[in-house]
TrEMBL record:
This is RNA polymerase subunit sigma-70. Residues 23-90 form the RNA polymerase sigma-70 region domain. The keyword NAD does not apply. Residues 137-187 form the RNA polymerase sigma factor 70 region 4 type domain. Interacts transiently with the RNA polymerase catalytic core formed by RpoA, RpoB, RpoC and RpoZ (2 alpha, 1 beta, 1 beta' and 1 omega subunit) to form the RNA polymerase holoenzyme that can initiate transcription. It comes from Luedemannella flava.
Amino acid sequence: MSGTSAELLQRARAGDREAFTALVQPHRGELQVHCYRMLGSVQDAEDAVQDTLLSAWVGLSGFEGRSSIRTWLYRIATNQCLSALRSSARRPPTVAAERPGEVLWLQPYPDLMLDDLPDHVPGPDARYESREAVSLAFVTAVQLLPPNQRAVLLLRDVLGYRAAETADLLGLSEDAVTSALRRARATIDASRTRDLPPPAGGPQERELVDRFVAAFTAPDVDALITLMTDDVWLRMPPQPFEYHGTDAVRRFLTTIDAHRRSIARMVPTRANHQPGWGEYVHDPVTGSLHLTGILVAGLAGDRISALTHFETTLAPHFALPRTLRPSERGDPRPAVGTAVGDRDRYGR
């Protein structure tokens, strides 16, 4: 522990809340991402981090310094998440999964909340790069794991803690950790996409995204399907609807053709290091544009491998306004300062 951290710890133990905040604040963002991976919900992750910091403040006298403050906070946060996962009251019945393999409550994680994460180098046993470890596909697969397997996989393969460290953090034996990790890896590996996405924000991604937006707001469904992988997934959490493969997705997109044509503006955003958009439709009564959903695309190579449509609950986290004024329809940038892609931009 550095001299500054040791001084802050001493002051915090003496009851100095400002010193405690300075001690834990550098770790807050990464703890929230960890809790998001565990719980699949931005809001639940925020609650878990609040509970973690409260528990750390109350239990600060019990911190013996055998590990770093960061590792100690990860211990508390992981166990907070495990308690939440095991609580029967965590999810209302209307949001519970009805079929094996469904993850109905998953929420997107705004890139705005990923920008300021500290650049910690994962431990020697990490298997996932940070971008893949926050992708919707990865987080979705993690939600299918039992709680202990979930925690073991994230601590070992994402954060890079060794088996002995993970066992200590979770209060398990090393054999139990090894067994849980083996089963968790089998589940995750079966769901991994082999084709890597193009570099985020690079020319290949921008070209694919521009082609997708043009096709998505056009009447030609086939043009949209040609941009997708054969095993593309389309999901709409928390609704129990999902479509797998281009034939199923084509039928669905044809069914909602009228809705797609009603989209007047797609405001770019990013979630889970993936491109996304706020979808706005025109209200003929007020003349304003109303946000109807947040669409996030998963990319694999030069194709779309997944489309996930989310409800508008998290719009404030993405700096997406609920409505755009009529005067903003011709403005290249809305009031929140997010770049806009709309039909005019694509020549329609």
